[in-house]
Amino acid sequence: MARNIVSEKKGEKMELWGLFFVSLMPILKVLLITALGTLLALDRFQILGDNATKHLNTMVYFVFAPALVCGNLAKTITLRSMIMLWFMPLNVLLTFVIGTILGWLLIKITKVPHHLHGLVLGCCSAGNLGNLPLIIVPAICKERSIPFGDVNVCYRNALAYASLSMALGSIFIWSYAYNIVRIYSRNLSCIVKVDSVENRVSVAETDPENPSKCSTESFQAAEDKSKSNEHVKELEIECTVPNGHAKVPKKGKIMKHVKIIAEKINLKVLFAPCTIGVIVGLIIGVIPQFRKLLVVDGAPLRVVQDSIDMLGGAGIPAMTLLVGANLLKGLKGSRKQVPLIVGITLVRFIALPAIGIGIVKGAVHFGFIHSDPLYQFLLLLQFALPPAVAMSTITQLFGAGEGECSVIMLATYSCAAVSLTLWCTFFMWLVL
């Protein structure tokens, strides 16, 4: 009897070790390609220098990523699967909302400088929902001791789940995180500098706390001319919208705030190339006539789908190489803020995954999620990913915290090698 108990415990221990090695293999693949990207970006080789990285980033943004998303969604997503996977968009939204709340708490605790608020909120809310799940989840299905059943079925489902995750991540990152960084990177208050010698007035925008109080209209600074002409006087004045002192009806106030928000949200990013790829892929996948025309075996326009797949196949290695090249900037970064880096790491790798377990298991308990362990695994994984690589691109677009972003990426992706392996092991043990 005692021997049986010991053998059962050994079997459980070996099974846990087996799950650990299954989790480790995809992470090692990502690390090897990332290390190659860092190596190619070194000054000694200059293969992925600044210009090459910029051009490759452009190719990924306009060609590889849209083709990757479009091709995978067209092949793997149908109307039936969309209905079955209805919880995933809500799950992704929860990762962004909860991450934003935790990021806001981090800002208050660590007293982050104002110009970095958008970067912190973006890194805490936007996870790498694109290339990492698309590498990790299908790769797990190819391992010998896969815990998710038949290899072919597992791989096909993994591609469908990861592709939808990438599509949703792209939409949320470029509509949610992009506009957070955009709003915080704009300076919205006015400091009027009056040079009493030459009677010049200049405006410096520095405080984005109150966007409704600034106007680009010319103002008049009342300055006593009897003051000394030897010094430049800086006066901080409150800028109000025209007729700001007049009473505005409640309906007018609402419309004014709606207009301000609409001006600040760049609707063009909602139709970024990757988002267009999502829309096209979903249309092809969901509408049976398009599937018969483009996707199924023997389809008349199958060559179009094959061409899209070839282009998309270059997306994952290109994006991973870019991660390595961008991490090199973090190695050169000098403005390290340890409390900020530690805080983002704790949010993304401890707090979010722990909250995610409660959300996903609660959804399973109430019957919101179907019983596929692979699907549950991916939903849990969405809470444990490092910050989205697109945050580097977004900070470069606005020139807001580029150096800090590189350091954050270096720290979080270094920790992700260990964190993702452990969380993947635990998640597989949890859902099986």
What features would you describe in this structure?
By secondary structure, the chain is mostly helical. The protein has two domains: 13-186 and 267-431, Na+/H+ antiporter like fold (Up-down Bundle); 190-264, no CATH class. The protein is 68% helix and 4% strand. The chain is built from 16 helices and three strands. The chain has a three-stranded antiparallel sheet, with no helix packed on it. Residues 1-14 and 187-246 have low confidence and may be disordered. The chain crosses the membrane at residues 16-42, 54-74, 86-107, 160-178, 269-290, 310-328, 340-368, 374-398, 410-431. Belongs to the auxin efflux carrier (TC 2.A.69.2) family. Its main location: endoplasmic reticulum. This is Protein PIN-LIKES 3. It is a multi-pass membrane protein.
Question: What's the SSE blueprint?
Answer:
Elements: H1 2-40, H2 50-76, H3 79-84, H4 87-110, H5 117-125, H6 131-141, H7 151-185, E1 190-195, E2 200-205, E3 233-236, H8 250-264, H9 273-286, H10 288-294, H11 302-313, H12 315-332, H13 338-365, H14 373-381, H15 390-398, H16 402-431
Helix pairs in contact: 1-6, 1-12, 1-16, 2-7, 2-9, 2-11, 2-12, 4-5, 4-7, 4-13, 5-7, 5-13, 6-7, 7-9, 7-15, 9-10, 12-16, 13-14, 13-16, 14-16, 15-16
